[in-house]
Design a protein that fits this description.
331 residues; mainly beta; SH3 type barrels; L,D-transpeptidase catalytic domain-like; five-stranded mixed sheet; 3 helices; 25 strands; 38% strand; globular; transferase activity; Transpep_catalytic_dom; peptidoglycan synthesis; cell shape; cell wall biogenesis/degradation
Amino acid sequence: MRQGTTLRAIPAGGTRDAFIGLTAGLRKLVLISLAVIVLAAVAGAGPSTAVAGQAGTINTDGVSLMADIDDTTPIATMYAGERVDLFWGPEAGRYEVRYYGTVGWVWAEYLDPDGSAVGGGSSAPAGGSGGSAIVDADSLNVRADASTSAAIWDSFDLGTPVEVIGDAVNGFSPISYYGGTAWVATDYLSWNGTVSAPAPPAVSAERWIDVNRTTGLVTLYEGSTVYASYWGSLGWDSTDGAYYSTASGSYRVHRIHQPLEYTRFANAYITDWVGFDQYRANGFHSWTRDAAGNVLPNGAGLTGGCVALEPAQARAVSDFASIGMRVEVHN
């Protein structure tokens, strides 16, 4: 036994006296051990780890989306209630996220991640946590989150192929959706390649939309046949490729939303949103309106890059469009 160390039996109720009776060296060792345990518990209470298919909600107005983990240059401003996709984190107190097609970093304290996408929900679909499946329903809603109350972004027809990218949560599976993540009801996916009824016949001619940025003419096509044509108000910046321009290029429709909704870009309301340029957040929509749906006095003016149409014409475009439809913008 080391000289100067005395071991004593600790009687019931004598814990404090026994601690005092320890040598100074042993007391110091006990205190260090307790400190390590406390620090480990605190470290375990940090932000939740991002997992595949997870999303989150911004909890404060005016939150900066930073360019990189070591570059705090703001590249966008986010507001309370807005949704983001989580890619990585937390690292150095930040998450890597995607916000309306732009990838950057946000401080963890300003983000509320959704519940973990692993476990806690319904059981994983056949074939593991991901893989190819097809829609086994006449019409399957594509939602912003794993909930029946989440916003509906789209609907898929019977037989539509999807790529599942994670485990089910609350009965919903995360799917790859035009570079982002969306959610569909797991019960209406088929994993063995069969569906309840034959898929509807495909349209023989491609339906697509042409925009002449020089004249403002919007033309709906079926193959090479003109279906309809309308005049639209385009971006105020005529420099082709500028952020606030209606930029030339080939695009695909990624979101359709017909009800009245607020847009912070115009500080007003629009209907019949058909998004096609994710980088510039451009799309077709109605002339701007007030909260009651009335067209504003300047509602037909130039835009920040979108294509604004008379309300009835905007509805015709949104009825014609479908997710993935080709949009060609040219001079």
